[in-house]
Predict the 3D structure of the following.
Amino acid sequence: MQFSFTSEQEEFRSVLRRFLEEKSPPSTVRRLMETEAGWERESWRELNQQLGLTAVHIPEVYGGQGFGPVELCIVLEEMGRALLCAPYFASTVLAATAIMQAGTEAQKRALLPDIAAGETIATLAFTEPNGRWDADGTEVSAQRAGGAFRLDGVKSFVLDGCTADVIVVTARGDAGLSFFTVPGDAAGLTRRSLRVMDPTRKQARLEFRGVEAELLGEEGGGVEPFARTMTLAAVGLANEMVGGAEKLRQSALDYANLRVQFGRAIASFQSMKHKQADMLVDVELAKSAAYCAASAAAEGDAELPAIASLAKACAAEAYMQTAIHTIQIHGGIGFTWDNDTHLWFKRAKSSEVFLGDPTYHRELMMRTWGA
Amino acid sequence: MSEATEAGVRAEVRTWLEANWNPDYGLVEWRNKLIDSGWGVPSWPKAWFGRELPMALEMVVEEEMQQIGAVSVAKTGIRRLAAATLLGHGSDDQKRRYLRRSLTGEDTWCQLFSEPGSGSDLAGATTRAEFKGNRWVINGQKVWTTSAHHADWGLLLARTDWDKPKHQGLSYFVLDIRQPGVEVRPLRQMNGYASFNQVFFTDAEVPPENLVGEVGRGWAVATTTLMHERRGADGISRWGKSSDRPGRVYEEERAENATVMEPYKWYPQRAGRVDLVVERAKATGRISDPVVRQEIAKLLILSKTAEWTARRARAAQMQGRPPGPEGSLGKLVGSHVARAAARVHTLITGADAMLSGDGAPMDGLIAEILVSVPAGSIAGGTDEIQRNIISERVLGMPKEPRTDNDRPFRDVPKNLVV
């Protein structure tokens, strides 16, 4: 495993950080989170045209940049830091990865270039109202109807599900679990926006009533590609989370240095200093986990599934704990709507649960390590 | 010499080792040869046995030595700290007298810093050194002195001026341990071992040429020792791993390690023995309990991420980057790992965790873990001091308010009971 970034990767990160600080300040986050879509086409295009971010990990033959999981994870860490409002996780991480893992060569050539270009927004609909994150939780049914398939059932917690142009769906048929694609405006598909705690990342409930769908990849061959997609998504989310955690840690430190009580900066109290030291430990350990997971993904490490779950669990605990400390350090102001901390707190909470909570991933880790 | 490259250094040391390494040497004989070649301590100055290579290239030299199985200079115990401190602050005469014999392992050292009344606050030392006639006379007591019972020399921090503020009244000496004014008594610990000593000075003597640095400047010298101690804090497990290969030099190294490492034999237990957890849980059947599985998983995550964080720090060092925060966390994280491991071992062991000795699980090893772990968060800088260091030096937060360094040391409140 790689334990450091190359100087090119560090340079990429700093360009990206400057770009996102400019394009996604908290004022923009607040404006976009109040909109129904939660993001804007125009700034999304910029993201792609200026930095090619929507194409970063998609191979060049499919119109991508051809970088790997490490570069993708740098992008995600910086987006998590900036709390960028965009369908990046849905389209570039979840959907593109699922297509790369499950699709046939012809389907990859047909679907990926537009996703890479940022022209098509895709998402992955895999979770259902039962809230399960494993393949066995899939109840949406796929029935053959002539040459095509028809989907029936309900998907929930679908990221950017109301705004996606293409929806990659997992469903169960006679042959077992398969992937399908459905256009966002398909007949028989009802999309309803969910009221979510984290308004910077919209979710939808999708109801399928005999929706015509195209099989993605092999019929009944969905279990393995689904597992690989979930593993890579967990790695990505872990890196996004450490970006947010680092941002919160720094903001708590800045505030403690500014805030004066009893005639002293509160940063001079040992209780604050020790808390900040503990926060640094939490965040740095989680970064190590997230970076190692990205590196393991890049190298195709045999232990990747265990390391991915480790990183997801570790980053989720660290992000949430950092968010709790950051509010505490801000005191009363930290509980107000006007203070920005709650924006990251809510992302921390929703990311803690999304793709499976730490308890779930710790158990997955134990099983994949044969314990 | 032009800028040394990794490939160049690798080739050069390899050629030298191929021509010179032979396991039939005596240990001291081989080490003298290694020291003379400049490959023993390649990051040291050329005037003192080195080649002035950057740290990253010193690691390359180490790799090549390991590759061929060559024994290194003596690095175990306090020798390493003594050598680094004297290299930085010693007079040429002191360097001539002590450096080579420390690197060959002929001389053994101990560190005489901590006192019953000054633990975290090392600069509060009250052991006194008074210049009488033609020598320094030492009176007082030190504690937590590893290896004092078989050391030749001690690195002594003592007070020479009670009217200056605390840090300015200290001086640093090399003290001959084997003299009538020094009494070494073992200190029994809560885990039953006696790896440390109490050292009592009653008119012990130090000749003037054994003052290191200037009178009253001992704190700066001690800081160098402590810096090297912290830097090596995670190195104990790598120390003293002897090769089991045949050859005179290996035999002598094994004998050296057996002596030097004796006080450290419970240190793996102090660190929590995470390596035993999964096997133990399988053996006891507790692995099927979902609560136990979660606790084991939390421990493994902590332990793995601690290891990866240390490797991030090393990778940054290898690339010659400025040390990031990840390099300052190891000691504190190690305490967390050890405590979590003790908790999980208890959970797995159940009622048997109340037993100790031969009849207890793993012949008492589990019990030894449980009663050794509390040392880790105290020795070498308590968790609380580590948090102060991290918050002040890494995060730049305000220093603790002090009432002890703006007045003569004799007026500073001290422990009534120790």
User: Anything to note?
Assistant: The interface with chain A takes residues 278, 281-282, 287, 290, 293-294, 296-298, 300-302, 304-306, 308-309, 311-312, 314-316, 319, 321, 325-326, 329, 332-333, 336, 384, 386-388, 390-392, 394-395, 397-398, 400-401 of chain B (CB under 8 Å). Residues 79-231 of chain B form a domain with the Butyryl-CoA Dehydrogenase, subunit A; domain 2 fold (CATH 2.40.110.10). DSSP finds 13 helices and eight strands in chain B.
